[in-house]
Every structure is written in C-alpha cells, then in structure tokens.
Design brief:
Layout: E1 2-7, H1 16-32, E2 37-42, H2 53-56, H3 61-76, E3 79-85, H4 93-102, E4 109-112, E5 115-118, E6 124-131, H5 145-154, E7 159-166, H6 172-187
Parallel strand pairs: 1-2, 1-3, 3-6, 6-7
Antiparallel strand pairs: 4-5
Flavin mononucleotide binds at residues 9, 11, 15-18, 85-89, 130-133, 168-169.
C-alpha cells in the first residue's frame, strides 16, 4: 500500500494538523504492517512554485518534470493523508499550489460531453483538518474542507474521511476536547 502524506501547516511541531496527519499515518502503519510505503510531502519545507503561464505552457523543463512527478505520485497513491490547517477560511497557499499542479486535464480528470470525469482511480483520502473556530459541516464560510473535498471528488476520489479538530483557539478546554475527539476517530480507522 502506497501512502502519500502531505503536510501544509506553517507551525512545525506546534501544528495540530501535522500531529493528526502523523497519527493517521501511524494508525495505518499499525493496521497494515510492513506492507506499506510512505512518501511525505512537506509543503512548508519544500514549497512548490505557483503555477505560472510558463509552467502551464511547458516552457520550464524543471517545473514540467516536477509537475509530472507530483501527478504520478498522486496517481500512484492508494491512500492520501492531508494535513490541512484553515488559514483565512481556506487552505495554506502551499497546498493550493500542489492542487494547481496535480489538477491536470487528461491526467487526473477529463471533460466529456456528459461533463467532467475523474481519472485518479480508487483511493482513500484522509483530511486532518484543524481550525481555530467552530464551523461544523458545510459552513458557508468554510473554504477549506469543502474545497479540498471538491478537488478530490473532481479527480474521481469519493472515499474521503475528514478527521477534524476545531475550536482549537477557543481556550485550552476546547482545544483538548477537539484533539481527543479527532484522536478517537483516528483510533477507529
Ligand atoms: C495565518 C492564519 C490564519 C488563520 N485563519 C483562520 C481562520 O480563518 N479561521 C479559523 O477558524 N482559524 C484560523 N486560524 C487558526 C488556525 O486554523 C488554527 O490555529 C489551526 O490549528 C491551524 O492548523 P495547525 O495547528 O496545523 O497550524 C488561522 C491561523 C493562522 C496562523
């Protein structure tokens, strides 16, 4: 089993989404034993350049190679674990930069006369979501979880599990409760 583990929080060891994504990967390791291959993309440490017209037009060989590598890595993964902090109602821009590089027509989706079709195949996605306030499901100002789900759905992935810690900036009790609730979900994987 191939796991693609992505982190995007800028908070290093203090990051909750990083803590949760690592715990999800650990849980999967315990469940599936030695038969596991993990690739870790730390988007805060190794930032992917924003999509530009030069990159889009294939005029930068180095970036074309990186884009191809990222697409293949995504296609090859059986499981994707994404640590997603909420920043300004959305995602870290580094995670958006990754999305812009893997959302490529003819590779991860295609348009047909019936509409778009995802090409990323069978995969499971775990989203380790962390946010300072409380939004629940489907909040009109949540451009973090809903956006990520839409992107994965668009590439054909529908098996998405969100492990959420929210209200983490609303005092120590709320933070502890949010973490415990997320961790009990992880234990149930
Ligand atoms: C730059 C920045 C922007 C943030 N924007 C929001 C926000 O819009 N809504 C919210 O509820 N929390 C917001 N927060 C709080 C984070 O979502 C919260 O601290 C979360 O734990 C971040 O994930 P991390 O711990 O993995 O870094 C923001 C934090 C930072 C640093």
């Amino acid at each position: 089993m191939k796991i693609l583990h992505i982190d995007s929080s800028i908070m290093g060891d203090a990051s909750i989404s990083r803590q949760l994504s690592a715990e999800i990967v650990k849980q999967l390791q315990q469940k599936h034993g030695a038969d596991i291959n993990i690739e870790h993309l730390d988007l805060a440490q190794q930032q992917i350049p924003h999509l530009s017209s030069e990159i889009l037009m294939g005029q930068n060989a180095e970036q074309s190679a990186l884009g191809e590598q990222l697409i293949q890595q995504y296609l090859d993964a059986d499981v994707v674990v994404v640590g997603a902090a909420m920043y300004n109602f959305g995602l870290a821009s580094t995670l958006k930069a990754w999305i812009d590089r893997i959302s490529v027509a003819g590779r991860t989706f295609k348009y047909t006369e019936q509409g778009p079709v995802g090409l990323a195949g069978e995969k499971k996605v775990y989203i380790a979501s962390s946010r300072g306030g409380v939004y629940g499901e489907n909040s009109p100002v949540d451009y973090q979880e809903g956006f990520l789900k839409a992107v994965f759905n668009f590439t054909g992935v529908n098996d998405i599990e969100i492990i959420r810690a929210e209200g983490v900036n609303m005092g120590p009790d709320m933070k502890a409760q949010a973490l415990a609730s997320a961790q009990s979900r992880i234990q149930a994987i």
